[in-house]
Amino acid sequence: MSSLEIIILLPLLAALAVGLGAPARATSLTAALVNLVWVIALAVKYQPGEMGELAYVHKRIILENPALALGVGADGVSLIMALLTVVVTVAAIWQTVDKPAMYYVASLLISAGALGAFLSTDLFFIYAFHELALIPTFLMIALHGRAEKEKRLAVAWKTTIYLGAGSLVLLAGLAWLVLEYSQAGKMEFDLTALRAMAQNSPISADKQAWIYLVLLIGFGTLVSLFPFHSWAAPAYATAPTPVAMLHAGVLKKFGLYGLLRIALPLLPQGALTPWIMKLLLAALLGNILVIGLVTINQKRLDDMLANSSVMHMGYIFLGLAAGTEIALKGSVLLMFGHGISIALLFALCGRMRNQLGTLEMDRLGGLGSHAPLLMLVFGFGAFASIGLPGLANFAGEIMVFLGSFANGNEWTTFHVAQGLTPLHWTVVAALWGVVISAVYMLRAFRKIFQGSANSGLFMSDPSSSQSVPLVGMAAVLLVVGCAPSLLLSLMNGPLAVVAAAVAR
Amino acid sequence: MSVFTIEAGLALLGLFLLLLDAFAPGVSRRTLGILSMAGVGLALVLLVTVAGGEEALPAFVKPFQQLDALAMFYKGFALVITLLVLWLVLECAPYMTRFTLEGRVGEMLSLPLFVCVGMMWMAGAKDLVTVFVALELVTVSFYVLVGYTRKSAMALEAGVKYLILGAISTGVLVFGIAWVYGATGSLEFEGIRQAAAAEGTNRTILLFGAAFLLAGLGFKVAAAPFQMWVPDVYQGASMPVAAFLSVGSKAAGFAVLSRVVAALAGEGSAVRGEVLAALIAAGSVTVLVGSLPAIFQTSVKRLLGYSSISHAGFLLLALGCQGAGRFGLDANGVVAFYLATYLPMTVLGFLALAVLRRNGRGEELEDFRGLGRRSPMLALVVTLAFASLAGLPLTVGFLGKMLVVLTLVDQGQWVALAFAILAAAVGFYYYFRVILAMYSSDEGVPEAAPVRVSLAARVVGVGLAVAVVLLGVYPRPLQPMLREASQAENSAVSAPSGH
């Protein structure tokens, strides 16, 4: 077995063991930590190739025609996503204490699904692993969700039907894609082979546009792209903390990852089709501005965080829409930064809910004096989320904005005289999202941690053991924010190839 | 040893067991069951290992039987499901005898053998008369089986419904056969195929006959608009019989449909377009009339009935996508593949119901409450089965759905695809409801006693669940069914082949 296969299998086996009665926390945490160390080791060892070749490749054929294979392999982008997954998994499991075994099983299954989706090289398994999270997410929201029974059931169903339907649309799109590239009745699902075909004998631009649209709707639903977003905010606000952390932090990135890995390189003409581009730009502005304003209006911390997580997807879509190497790198970096910061914020949110019993921001206040560490860590998450320089999200966002404005030209030689394209206008509008983020995040920070603690609600700092995952995630944000080249250096090869494919 | 010898042997064994049960009251049901299962098991082993090909058939059988890959698959399929059903009869006997005359189950252990022989014979049929005779053997046996637990009013209702509708559908079928014969002058599939493509065949008459033929078979496989009987009959019939109807009867129906469609809608056939359009239309409606009412079911057994309708819809859609496109795989092969994936998950569903019944629980959704805590293993197994029925990836149920989606996209059947996607999305709801119930707390459920699962049920349940996952991740053993369309065309109706 190859090391990537074991990385995917380990959480699955741990989940099975926990399900059948093994000590839940110890088993899960061990598996998560082993995976953390292992993925870091693989990332350190990884040497990016010129053409974005995959490393750690291994392939088992499971069906000849349609040609399905359990293929695994990683390049810089998938390694970064795997890193995100293992970091958040450790944190999610670490902060889960005294909970039923189901919490651990669900966390492990979601983690395995995300790892499988990020590390597979076969469309079939990329798709299949993502679905692994569907039942655990559904059951956790329905049974352990943070709301009255009626409401959490409604949220669980809405989430499941949305994600299920989105996946089915995605399946139809992938099926179409595979069929268009299949030759002589042999259906090929291998991503590398498909990429070679896309370069040598691309399908017509017209078909690419339609397939791209179907994929955009399918993947978009999974990432809560406006207007397919309405499942996400209630789901994250209601889901138990580890599920919210893993789903909002990691699993949701699958849709973006899929667009980056599958849609852009295989359907570059589709991505460049003007009407599709305009649709996507309008949708992502919906995420940034409409959902941004919705977020400002939230009164509860969990609702606000959930909506903000929907909003921030807009920036990443912007990077993907621009398609320049800088913008794409920024998108991946932002996926990582957003994943860590939102997981951190949801972890804190869960602690507050447990200790305070309420998340109404108007009722909170002055918590900073009791819980200085909490305030500090929350500050890291909140400021990262706004895009404060020095934290991971800033590096991603600035690259997305600059890369999008460059729009294929060297951005230093850009002339306004050529006129602004829709993409440029979108960037201009999207920049206001930063202001919106600042408004709601800073207001939440002030309401919760500053002022006087006259509400009678008391909260203490976590024990030193429980601080580890929180401080750890804050440290990751800081380190990546100060030295983004740690991650950027991994991405040189693979994203240059994608950017070249969608170059105008 | 020829395949015919195996089939004849099974029929004789059935007769012997029937007589033994009637005239030797001292023989326990256990003995009967073991004899019956041993016979089917032996037949399966012989079929896979030593059975000769078409050339080994006796001369008087050769005009009626062919043994191409499709026939061999459905024959094996019939044996597997019969074996599982016989075991289910033994598993359910302790409570089922309350509803049978004098507490007997003997016939339930011999009649399935006749059903099995009928299904096997049907799978290799070369002409419509053979199909009809075999179909009657199956259907008449089912008339008895469905109403066998006759002390239950629901079983009686089911028996009567199945009898009346079955008889009508048989009439419709014969009517259709007659018209097709009138139009083509042949009862053999090969003859029909040639006549349908030949000039001078009366297209209107052929179309008329084809419509009745397809309608008659539509009853058997629960295709809309002939699906109304399914939920009632499943609910009334005993667990093993419902499983048998849902898997065995459906597979047999599709085995025949595959042949009929290949004959009527072969390359160049005058009615190809109409037949395929009818299949697609029926399939599109069937997936919906299976899925939508399933939302409102509180009885899991009825739910499995609607689920069975919905799956029939997917199978019809696959069948309606004949012809090699970019997809390149033979439609009949996809149907066989789908049925192979359908077997373990559906049997698991009925197995779970049987276990609950033995524990004194009912068949309602409520009765699944708390199973996750009372019997984690059973709950896991049932979760996998229902995830697979819903078509979740990494289970075998996904592969069948994926192939159907692929062929629909390839044929540009966008409307049918939209129906299929809608039905599958709705499926998440009603299948997941069962899963949710299992992991919900069972406070307030009366008789929430610990759930006992017999050793045999554990072995079979885990075995099927492993099959569901393993084949979902490693479907290579099912590859032989997915033949390329070009190869299949060559051996379309009557080429000799071993396996």
Question: How would you describe the overall organization of this protein?
Answer:
The complex is a heterodimer of chains A (504) and B (499). Helix content of chain A is 73%, strand content 3%. Chain A is mainly alpha-helical and 504 residues long. Chain A has one domain (3-501). Chain A has a two-stranded antiparallel sheet. In chain A, strand 1 (55-63) and strand 2 (68-74) form a beta hairpin. The radius of gyration of chain A is 22 Å and the shape is globular. Chain B is built from 19 helices and no strands. With 499 residues, chain B is mainly alpha-helical. The longest helix of chain B is centred in the middle third of the chain and has 32 residues, at 153-184. Chain B has helices spanning 3-23, 29-49, 69-96, 106-123, 128-146, 153-184, 189-197, 203-221, 229-236, 239-264, 272-294, 300-320, 331-358, 371-374, 376-390, 396-411, 414-439, 455-473, 485-490. Chain B has one domain. In chain B, helix 6 crosses helix 9 (229-236). The two termini of chain B are 15 Å apart. The A-B interface holds A 19-21, 61-66, 68, 70, 102, 124, 127-129, 131-132, 134-135, 138-139, 142-143, 156-157, 160-161, 164-165, 168-169, 171-172, 175-176, 178-180, 182, 184-187 and B 324-329, 376-377, 380, 383, 387, 392-394, 398, 402-403, 405-406, 409-410, 417, 421, 424-425, 428-429, 432, 435-436, 439-440, 473-476, 478-479, 482, 484-486.
- This entry's quaternary arrangement is heterodimer
Our count of helices of chain A gives 23
The SSE order of chain B reads HHHHHHHHHHHHHHHHHHH
The overall strand count of chain B is 0
Computed over alpha carbons, the radius of gyration of chain A is 22 Å
Calculate the terminal CA-CA distance of chain A, rounded to whole Å: 42 Å
Mean pLDDT of chain B: 89
Number of helices of chain B: 19
What is the H-and-E element order of chain A? HHEEHHHHHHHHHHHHHHHHHHHHH
Unreliable parts of chain B: 492-499
Average residue-wise pLDDT of chain A: 89
How many independent structural domains of chain A?
1
